[in-house]
Amino acid sequence: MQRNVFLVQPGYLYGDIKKSAYLPYAAGALAAYAFSQAELKERFVFSGFICFFEPMDAAVAKLQTADVVGFSNYVWNVKYNCALAKRLKAQKPEIVIIFGGHQIAENDPRLREMTYVDYFIFGEGELAFASVLRTVSELSAVPEVPGIAYRDTDGTLVVSSGEPPVCAEYPSPYLTGFFDRLLETYPDISFIALFETNRGCPFHCAYCDWGTTKTQIRMFSMDRTAGEIAWFSSHKIINCFAADANFGLFERDEQIARMLIEAKRNTGFPERFDVTYAKSDNARVMRIASLLYKEKMSNGPSVSFQSLNPATLRAIGRENLTPERFSEVMRQYEAFGMRPYSEIILGLPEETFSSFVHGLGALLAMGQHSYIDVFRCEILVNSVLADPMIRERYGIETVRVPSSLHHVSKTDASGAFGESEIVVATSAMPKADMLRANLFSMTVQACHHMGLTKYIAIYLFRAYRIPYETFYLRLMEHLETGDDCFMFLRTVFESYLNGTREISVDDPKFGEITWFPEELFFLQKVFVAEAFYASLLPVLQTFLPDAHLAGQLLKYQSLFTVTPRCETKHAQFDYDFYHYFNGPDAELRSKPTEINMKLPYYDTWAECAVKTVWYGRRRAGTDAFASALEIAVE
Question: Which of 138, 481, 583, 607 has the most crowded Cβ, counting Cβ within 10 A?
Answer without folding.
Answer: 607
